[in-house]
Amino acid sequence: MSPTPERVWLFDLDNTLHDASAHIFPHINRSMREYIERHLGVDTQEANRIRQRYWERYGATLLGLMKNHATDPRHFLRETHQFADLEAMVVFRRGTLQALQRLPGKKIIFSNAPRHYMEAILKITGLWRHFAATYAVENLRFRPKPMLTGFHALLRAEHLQPGQCVMVEDSLINLVAAKKLGMKTVWVSAGLRQSPYVDVKIRSILELPQRCARL
User: Staple partner for 167: which of 49, 160, 178, 191, CB 3.0–4.6 Å?
Assistant: First the structure.
């Protein structure tokens, strides 16, 4: 009889392992709007409209800019993810480290964020100690979740089957993609909404160790 494959946890980063909504996302959103204003020569209202439209249509503002304006993704990510004092902006619950330590199986970061930002967050929080591998948007050839291209790239690189994996995310649209591939899914959300694409719903990562038996 073949041995049971090791369970592998794929973790999103922002608003899954730390709270990016408080300080970091407002800064990034403002930086993206200002980038669009500068490089497309539009006013603030139009820049906001473009950013939102591309987010809704493509799942990421960057993809819309690449497809419609030939924007250099590396330049965009570098310009929009600069922080004078990132450490002061991070909201992180230290209990997260203990929760991850109690979780059996291999753990991988699977994020749409750029590598320089992702590595800075992992260092500031101490999360880097708990992950065997990290995948930023550069590793996905700028084809972020929920595009299946990024999922397939990670699975190939790590020699994994979808059935081995548990995707832990705050974004439901990304969990829908994971579930359709055959992964188990954990939704980190304090909202009341439910979804057939979610196997387990938790309010924070701190709940994951005691809930993982349901997977």
Answer: 178
Residue 2 lies in a domain: no
pLDDT band at 76 (very low <50, low <70, confident <90, very high): very high
How far is Cα 142 from Cα 120, in angstroms, rounded to an integer? 19
Query: pTM, whole model, 2 decimals?
Result: 0.93
Same-domain check for residues 124 and 207: yes
Exposure string over 86-105, b if 16+ CB within 10 A, otherwise e:
beebbeeeeebbebbeebee
Q: 71 and 102 in one domain?
A: no
Query: Residue 116 has which token pair?
Result: 């320089």
Residues 12 and 29 occupy one common structural domain: no
**Distances 41 to 20, 58, 97, 169 between C-alpha atoms, Å:** 29, 22, 44, 35
Residue 96 pLDDT > 90 = yes
Can you tell me the distance from the alpha carbon of 64 to that of 41, in angstroms, rounded to the nearest whole number? 16
Cα distances (Å, whole numbers) of residue 198 to 7, 59, 176, 201, 213 = 17, 19, 8, 7, 15
Q: Are 119 and 86 in contact (CB under 8 A)?
A: no
pLDDT at residue 4 greater than cutoff 60: yes
